Amino acid sequence: MVNPLKLSLAPYIKGGLRKTLEPFAKGYLNLAGFKQVGLRYDDLIQEENDQMQKALGRLSPREEYDRAWRLRRAINQSIQHKDLPAEQWSEEDPAQQRYLTDRIEQVTTEYNERQLFDNPEFKIEQKHH
Amino acid sequence: MQRSLARNSNLKSAFKPSLASSVNVVFNAGTRFEDSQGVANVLKNFAFRDTENRSSLRQVREAEAAGGVLYSTLTRDNLTLSADFLPGHEDLFISLLADVVKSTKFNAHEYKESVKPAIEAEVNAAQHNPLIQAIDTAHTIAFRRGLGNSLFSASENPVDLQDVKKFASKVYSADNVAFLSTGQSDVSSTLSSYFSGLTTTGQVSSDKSHYFGGEQRFNLAHDGHANPTAFIAWGTTQPSAAHSVLAEFLGGQSSNIKWSRGTSPLSAIDEGDVKALNFEYSDANLFGFTVESNTDQNVKSASQKAVAALKAVADKGVESDKLAAAIAKSKFNYTLYADSAQGWKQLNGNGLINNNLKSLDQVLGEYDAVSTSSVQQAAAELLKNKVTLVTVGGRDLPYADELHL
C-alpha cells in the first residue's frame, strides 16, 4: 500500500538481523545530516499530498509551531553551510524522531478503509438446485 | 396509542408494533442538564463518530448497506440516539447504538474536522431563521440557566473536549436512559444484552425552573428572505391543560379546513401571521404568540391585537361552545402527536426515565376537565407575570410597554 511513509523493511528486520544492521542504520542517519541541522526524521517526509496534510492538521498547536521552527532553523543553517552546535542536534529518542508517524498511520487507515468501502467486493453465494 | 411495557430488572423500555423498525435510546441529557455551556449540543453531534469497534465511516456505510438511517436529536429535556431500519437488522443497529453509547472515542481530530463544522452549520441555520432565534432566546430570558439554556452551541463559547467526555460519562448511564423500539417484535432482550454494561452513576438532576421574563431585540439577517418577527410569551412553573386549551382557543391562521382562515380570535388579525403556542416542560411552560409580517409596523399592530385577544379572555372569559371546540381540538392534536413517531418517542422517553408516564386517557381526561373559569384564570395568571418579548427586525418593532399590557 502506498502511503506517505513509503516503503519500509523495518517490520521484517527483527531479532538477530536487526542487531547486525543497527550500527549501519545509525551511521546512515548520522551521515544523512538532518540531525545536525536540528530536524527530526518525520520532518523529512514529503508533505505535498492529501493524507500528509490531514495528518499535519492533527498536530497540536505547540507541535505545529515547533515543526515550523525546526524547518526554518534548518533552512537557515543550510544557507549558512553550517551545522548547529552539537547540543542543539535533534534527539536520539525514536518517539520524538517519529512524532508524526502514529497520525500518518491513523490517516492512512482511514483512507484505506474508505477505499475498501468505496470498492466493496460482494460475495454472492452459489445456490445449488 | 398501542403500547406494551416490557420492564426488565434494570431496563426501562417501551415497544410499539409497526411495519418499519426503529430503536431509540433516550437519555436525560437535554440542554437543561448541561454543566458547561453548549456541551449537550456537542455530545449530540458526537453521536455516530469513531468508537472502539467501528469507525464513523463504517457506521454510516453499514447502516446504508442494511437500509437504515442513524440520527441524534436534542431537546431541552432529552438527547435521543435513533436508528430507523428494515426489520431483520435489529442486531446490527442495536450493537451499533450500544457502541456509540459505551465506547465513543471522542477523538480531538474528529471534534475539529467533523463535529465543529456540523455545529457551526446548525448555529448558522438557526440564526437565519428569526422564529427559531426568537423562541430559543425567549426560553433563555424566560428561564435563564437550566431550562433556559440555548439548544445551540455558539462558537463564542467553545466547548472543551474534556467537558464533553465528562458530560458523556455522567449522562450515558443506566439510571438515565429509556429504550423505545418499534417493529414487528419486541427487542428488549437484545437491548438488555447489548446495553448490559452501562455504568450506574445516578440520575442527573437540574435546578427547578423559575420564570423571570424580559426583553431582547435582534437585527434581521439581511441575506435571507426572512420577515420581521416577534415572540411574545409568558411563563409559569405550573403547566396545566388549560394553557394548551387556551392556545388552541386563540388559535392561528391555519385552520383544519383548506383555504379557510378559521374563526379563532387570532385568525381575525389581518396585519400578520399570528399563532398561539404553548411549550410544555416537566416543571414549567411557556405560553406565547409568534407574530410574523412583512413590515415592522404590521408586526407591531398585530402584536397589540394578539395581546388584546389574550386580555379579552382574562377579562371576559370564553363562550362555552367555543371552549368545547378548543378542548376537542386539543385532544385531537395530542392524540395525533402521541400516535406520530416523533411524539411517541418524546412523550414515552421522558415519561419512562422520570417515572411519570401518563396514559392517553389520563391526559385526555385533563383536557376534558378544563372549564371556562379555569381558562379565564389561566389567562389572568399568565398576564400577571412579566412578559418575555423577543423581536427580530428593525426599530419599529414593538417594545414591551407598547403592547398595552
Automatic annotation (TrEMBL), chain A:
Gene Ontology terms: biological process: mitochondrial electron transport, ubiquinol to cytochrome c
Keywords: Electron transport, Membrane, Mitochondrion, Mitochondrion inner membrane, Respiratory chain, Transport
Compartments where found: Mitochondrion inner membrane
Signal peptide from the UniProt entry: none
Claim: Membrane is one of the keywords in the record: yes
Membrane topology: Peripheral membrane protein
Family classification: Belongs to the UQCRB/QCR7 family.
Name under which the protein is recorded: Complex III subunit 7
UniProtKB/TrEMBL annotation, chain B:
Keyword Ribosomal protein: no
Primary location class: mitochondrion
Keyword Transport annotated: yes
Residue span, Peptidase M16 C-terminal domain: 159-328
InterPro entries given in the database record: Metalloenz_LuxS/M16, MPP/UQCRC_Complex, Pept_M16_N, Peptidase_M16_C
Domain Peptidase M16 N-terminal: 18-153
GO terms for cellular component: mitochondrial inner membrane
Compartments where located: Mitochondrion inner membrane
Key words, A-Z: Electron transport, Membrane, Mitochondrion, Mitochondrion inner membrane, Respiratory chain, Transit peptide, Transport
GO molecular function (one): metal ion binding
Topology of the protein relative to the lipid bilayer: Peripheral membrane protein
Family: Belongs to the peptidase M16 family. UQCRC2/QCR2 subfamily.
Entry protein name: Cytochrome b-c1 complex subunit 2, mitochondrial
